[in-house]
Structure formats: structure tokens, C-alpha cells
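Design job #97: recover the sequence.
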């Protein structure tokens, strides 16, 4: 098990707004204000200062997470094998392809090795570029080879510095989004500070560097910033076209770098659908966003050699269904309240039925089953019946796929983020309900419009999108902890926007009959500044202490295992074991694997379940036959899995295998009535007794406190 230990040696200014106020909808009287030139210069100065602050905060965040990574592992001082082991589980698998491309004799040979890969899954040749989102590793490796930096920068540092550099892009994008929403870069400053001080809940890049989300989320943030700008009113045609181009590029890069892109963009498409139905967004712009999502995903599909999982995604089916349904129902936004509500209900049902029908047809034609484990997991998670499916239970028992822990909210509350977020969310939600009712009722009465004026001003299209976006991704985060990073980062944006928004304070002050323009402006700047002072005072000492704490990587058992494999096994040897460990075996030794952590393939999932019989109650002959069917030469057993205590009874890997095999689980507790005792003891325990029935098939060739390696006999 990898651990870290202490080192033994000592390391309110306004932005220029393209979005005019509501009052600019009237025709100008033709007079030019006397302070026009001064205002223009002030806007230029504000944009310049705000831009400098954004770039500075982005760079500081990159340096901050890079320093934490170095301080935690002493990365610059440890051996190469230790650096590679620090890329745990699937992180190591992804990084191994970057290393493979770097070490290839040529770029062409490296690409050929990825397209015709026979070392990631034994006795199979697979196309890595089709199966996995590793184009970023390919691009970086090519860039490293062609740039004259080999003498100054090791490949691993070029890789991790790129990821830390993307954190700068991430923070700048969050900053700009908040600035665009509120109209002041003070909001962006507050959003960035909240992102940094809530780092535990906003990012995990410093200890899971190659994880796909660390590549993808910066581009997702850029896309959201571009959408926020696109939804402004009165954009010139050239501005709109350029913004759509930015949205497309960001959407494409986001889709290219993360296999879960389709599910995130489905939620985004659902937000657009809801707002379009409630007449809160311009239909033409929403249509363009639907088309961009489809085209970006299809382009990724082409680059991934027509990956069937992309073609069978719910996103493509949903967006296509919305566009078809819209052509069928052309008068959705006409009529009274009840008439429109009836039309919208029929429209939603039509879109739902079309989505399911199109998706079912695509999957039937393509014989697609790659994502069935996700739907089995969702079905079991939300209580639609218990399941004995091994893959679904594997997800259900992982903490990362469980509900968001309550202590998350206490941490977010320490920085005032959660309290302010709830305040802004409640206020904006009330405004959204009122505006939606007004839009659906189609009332044109002047008196009604005057009463609702403050709500209309508060909920501009970009703010409406941000509201629904944060609500939907909040629901996702609450249900699945691993997805909280999509929500918490936007929480920083949403809360800072509300705190610095003239419209929010105007609405609140009018509700208590205290509104004046001057008072709203004073509160708009004073409250965020006070919040920034509080955050700085409370958290700056902690950040300094964190940066001064020095530790080092310490995992001698895994290092010993990897060194033994490199020194004592042939390069063509095939290894079986847990998915997490084998990713490290491939990275550190280059040996062939039987299975790995990239789980989005039905054949691999079935193969993994078979390999994991080494931790089940099976006979030595059965286990040997299974392993040899995948060409296995060596099997690695881990005590941390065989005698697992991390999970409770029913969620230990051996329990999942027992239930899937129809066997009674170990330990005190209830079992389902149809489960029966196994005829054989647990393989991983019994093999260590060196009984003749086991030694005829398996010979122990290595062991330490954590790992046991057995060589398989090759019977004819």
C-alpha cells in the first residue's frame, strides 16, 4: 500500500459589458454623454487590471498544486519506479501510453503500437485510440519529441507540468465566467479564491494527475464561459460566430479527453431543454448548442475509429429527438398558461419516447453493450431492485460512487461558500419561478410587467442557464460523490456572481423597501471585499503551513515487486491480478496484462470477473484453467484484497464474488436464502499452504508483506 511519511531531510472594478442593461432597449436620443471618453478609458483600464489578476491567479494556482505535489511525494528526489507507482490505478495505465510513445523508435511506430496493441489485454489485439481517451498523451508525447527540451526537462515533468498548467486555464475560465455574469472582475477574484481555499472539494489534480477529468474539466469550464458570453443579448454577428467557434472547440476537446463526456453534456443539454421550454433562452442559440454538442461528439467518434459507445450515447439520441420534436410541434410558445403547459408536457413525452426509441435502434443495429454496466449500476443505486450483477455491485460498493458525504458541506461552509451559495440559489430560484410563470402565461399587462421588473432584470439568459446548470450538476454530485468536482467549481462561480450582482441586491433591497441605486452599489462591492478579507485572514496561515509541510513517497513493497518483475521475468510474460495493480505493472515493467482498470468494454468486464476468481472459493484446477485461457504466466495475489477490511461485509471483493457465484459469504451476518456453501475453500488463502493440489499448478516465486507471485504450470 502506498503511504506518505515525514521527510527525514528538509522544501470592485466594473468590467466592460457587452451585455447592455435593460434600459438600452429604448432608442438613443442621439446625445453622446460628456464622460463617454472617460468611461471608455475606465473600461479599458478595468479589463486590463481584471485580466492581469485572472492570469496571475491562474498561474499561482498552478504553482500551488505543483508545490503540494512535490512536497507530498518529494517527487524530484524519488526514483523513476517510485514516480511511476505514484500514478495509481487507471492513472498509471493512461501514463503508460505516454511513456510508450516517448520510448518508441519513431512517432509512426508509436502510433502503430497503440492502434495494434497486444500488451494491454493478453491474447487480444485492441485499438487503444478507439477504446480509450488517450489522444492527449499522444499529442504530448509528439510535442515532447519535436521540441528541443529533452536535455532540460524529463518526460514525466513535461507531462505533469502540462496538467498543472491546465489548472491555470481552469481557474481563469471560472474567473471569466463569474466576471461575465456579474459585470465586475471582483466576482472572478472571489470565485478563484473560493476554488483555491476549497481545494479538497474542487480538485484532486495534485494526487491523481493523469485522471481523465483533470484533462477535461478545464475545457468544460472554458465551454461554460463561452456559453455564458453567447447568451448575452445584442451580440454582433461576428462576436456570435467567434463565440460559437470557441464553444465548439472547447466542447470537442472536452469530449476527446474524457470517456464520461456524453453523460455530462446530456445534463447540459437537459438544462438547455428546460430553459428553452420555459422561454428563458433564445431558441436559435439553443439550437446551435445542440448541433455543436452532436458535431463535437461525432468528430470524436471519427477520431476514435467510430467508437460504438459514442454512437449509442443518450446525448446524440436526446439532441436529435429535441430537434425532430421541435419540427413536429411548431406552436409550442403560443397560447395561454394551461394551453402551453399541456403542449410542453406532450413535447417532453415526445422527446422522451423519441430518445428511447432512437437509442434502442442504434444499440440494436450496432449490437452495443459497452455501457450496460452503467445502467445496471444506476438501476440498483436508485432502488429499482437489488442486483447480484458483479460489475454493478463493484461500483455500488465504492465510496466514490456513493452519496456525497455530509462533511463536505461543513468544509464548504467554513469558507462561507455554501451559505452564500444557498442564499443566492434561493433568491434566483424564486425569481426563475416567477419569470417562468410570466413567460408561460404570456401576460402583456403593463401593471404586471412593472411588478415583475426586478425579477426580469435579475434573471437574464446567462444567469438562468447558470442557475439550472448548478441545480442539475448539484443533483448529480449529491447522488455520486466522484462527480462533485463538476458542481463545487461552478458553486464558486455561482455564489460569487450572486454576491457581486447588482440585480440580486436590487431585488433583495426592493423586497425590504430599502432600495436605492447608491446603496445597491455600495453593498455590491463591500460584501465581497469583506468576504475576501475574512477568507484571507482565516485560511492564509493554513495554506502557508500546508506548503511548508514536507513528506515523501513510501511504498517499499510495491517497489520491490516491480523491480523483481523487471529483473526476473521475460519481457513477454503475462501477468494476472487486480485491475489497479496491473496498471502499475504495465507502466513500470511493460509486461502484458490480462485485465486493466478501463472498464468501458463488456468483454473486459467479463474477463475481469473471471480473473478475480483468484479471490473466490474455487478449486485450483478451475482457477488454473481460467488463468491459462487468458495466457497467464504469473498471478499476483494481494493480502489487502484477500483479507480486506476496508469495506464492510457484503461489499468486500470476495463477498461480491461469492454472491455472484451463488456462495455464502464469510463472517457473521445474513445471507440470501438461495446461497449455498462452496465445495472449495477460498483460493487466495488456501494456495499459501502449499498443498500438493495447488503446487502442481502454481509455484510461488516471490513474496513480501503485501504481495505473493505464483508462476503457472503449463500443462499440455
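Job complete. Output follows.
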Amino acid at each position: 500500500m502506498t503511504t506518505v511519511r515525514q521527510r527525514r531531510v528538509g522544501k470592485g472594478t466594473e468590467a466592460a459589458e457587452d451585455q447592455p442593461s435593460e434600459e438600452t432597449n429604448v432608442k438613443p436620443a442621439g446625445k453622446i454623454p460628456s464622460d463617454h471618453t472617460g468611461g471608455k478609458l475606465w473600461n479599458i483600464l478595468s479589463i486590463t487590471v481584471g485580466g492581469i489578476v485572472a492570469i496571475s491567479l491562474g498561474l499561482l494556482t498552478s504553482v500551488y498544486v505543483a508545490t503540494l505535489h512535490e512536497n507530498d511525494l518529494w517527487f524530484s528526489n524519488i526514483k523513476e519506479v517510485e514516480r511511476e507507482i505514484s500514478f495509481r490505478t487507471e492513472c498509471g495505465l493512461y501514463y503508460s501510453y505516454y511513456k510508450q510513445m516517448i520510448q518508441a523508435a519513431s512517432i509512426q511506430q508509436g502510433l502503430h503500437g497503440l492502434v495494434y496493441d497486444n500488451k494491454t489485454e493478453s491474447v487480444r489485439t485492441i485499438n487503444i485510440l478507439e477504446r480509450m481517451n488517450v489522444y492527449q498523451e499522444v499529442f504530448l508525447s509528439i510535442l515532447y519529441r519535436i521540441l528541443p527540451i529533452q536535455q532540460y526537462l524529463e518526460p514525466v515533468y513535461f507531462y505533469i507540468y502540462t496538467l498543472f498548467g491546465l489548472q491555470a486555464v481552469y481557474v481563469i475560465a471560472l474567473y471569466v465566467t463569474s466576471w461575465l455574469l456579474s459585470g465586475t472582475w471582483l466576482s472572478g477574484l472571489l470565485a478563484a479564491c473560493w476554488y483555491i481555499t476549497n481545494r479538497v472539494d474542487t480538485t484532486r489534480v495534485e494526487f491523481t494527475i493523469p485522471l481523465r477529468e483533470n484533462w477535461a474539466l478545464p475545457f468544460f469550464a472554458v465551454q461554460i464561459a463561452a456559453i455564458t458570453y453567447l447568451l448575452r443579448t445584442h451580440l454582433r454577428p461576428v462576436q456570435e460566430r467567434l463565440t460559437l467557434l470557441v464553444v465548439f472547440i472547447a466542447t470537442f476537446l472536452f469530449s476527446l479527453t474524457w470517456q464520461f463526456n456524453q453523460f455530462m453534456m446530456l445534463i447540459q443539454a437537459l438544462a438547455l431543454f428546460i430553459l428553452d421550454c420555459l422561454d428563458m433562452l433564445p431558441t436559435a442559440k439553443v439550437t446551435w448548442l445542440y448541433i455543436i454538442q452532436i458535431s463535437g461528439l461525432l468528430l470524436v467518434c471519427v477520431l476514435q475509429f467510430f467508437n460504438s459507445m459514442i454512437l449509442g450515447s443518450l446525448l446524440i439520441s436526446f439532441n436529435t429527438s429535441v430537434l425532430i420534436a421541435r419540427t413536429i410541434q411548431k406552436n409550442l410558445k403560443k397560447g395561454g398558461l394551461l394551453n402551453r403547459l399541456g403542449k410542453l408536457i406532450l413535447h417532453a413525452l415526445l422527446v422522451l419516447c423519441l430518445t428511447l426509441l432512437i437509442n434502442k435502434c442504434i444499440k440494436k443495429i450496432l449490437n452495443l453493450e459497452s455501457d450496460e454496466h452503467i445502467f445496471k449500476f444506476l438501476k440498483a443505486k436508485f432502488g429499482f431492485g437489488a442486483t447480484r450483477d458483479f460489475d454493478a455491485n463493484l461500483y455500488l460498493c465504492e465510496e466514490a460512487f456513493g452519496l456525497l458525504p455530509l462533511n463536505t458541506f461543513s468544509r464548504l461552509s467554513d469558507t462561507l461558500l455554501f451559505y452564500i451559495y444557498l442564499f443566492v440559489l434561493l433568491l434566483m430560484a424564486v425569481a426563475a419561478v416567477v419569470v417562468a410563470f410570466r413567460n408561460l402565461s404570456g401576460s402583456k399587462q403593463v401593471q404586471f410587467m412593472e411588478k415583475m421588473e426586478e425579477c426580469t432584470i435579475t434573471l437574464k439568459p446567462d444567469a438562468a442557464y447558470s442557475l439550472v446548470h448548478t441545480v442539475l450538476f448539484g443533483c448529480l454530485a449529491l447522488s455520486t460523490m466522484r462527480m462533485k468536482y463538476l458542481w463545487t467549481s461552478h458553486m464558486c462561480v455561482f455564489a460569487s456572481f450572486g454576491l457581486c450582482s447588482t440585480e440580486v441586491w436590487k431585488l433583495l433591497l426592493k423586497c425590504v423597501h430599502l432600495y436605492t441605486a447608491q446603496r445597491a452599489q455600495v453593498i455590491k462591492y463591500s460584501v465581497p471585499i469583506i468576504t475576501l478579507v475574512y477568507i484571507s485572514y482565516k485560511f492564509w496561515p493554513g495554506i502557508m503551513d500546508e506548503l511548508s509541510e514536507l513528506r515523501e513517497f513510501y511504498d517499499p513493497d510495491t517497489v520491490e515487486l516491480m523491480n523483481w518483475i523487471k529483473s526476473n521475468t521475460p519481457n513477454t510474460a503475462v501477468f494476472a491480478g487486480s485491475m489497479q495493480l496491473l496498471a502499475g505493472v504495465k507502466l513500470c515493467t511493460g509486461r502484458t496484462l490480462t485485465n486493466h482498470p478501463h472498464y468501458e468494454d463488456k468483454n473486459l468486464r467479463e474477463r475481469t470477473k473471471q480473473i478475480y476468481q483468484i479471490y473466490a472459493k474455487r478449486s485450483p484446477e478451475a482457477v488454473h484453467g481460467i488463468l491459462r485461457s487468458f495466457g497467464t504466466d504469473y498471478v499476483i495475489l494481494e493480502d489487502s484484497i484477500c483479507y480486506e477490511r476496508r469495506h464492510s461485509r457484503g461489499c468486500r471483493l470476495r463477498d461480491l464474488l461469492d454472491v455472484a457465484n451463488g456462495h455464502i459469504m464469510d463472517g457473521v451476518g445474513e445471507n440470501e436464502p438461495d446461497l449455498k456453501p462452496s465445495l472449495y475453500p477460498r483460493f487466495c488463502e488456501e494456495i499459501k499452504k502449499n498443498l500438493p493440489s495447488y503446487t502442481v499448478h502454481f509455484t510461488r516465486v516471490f513474496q513480501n508483506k503485501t504481495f505473493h507471485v505464483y508462476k503457472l504450470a503449463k500443462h499440455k
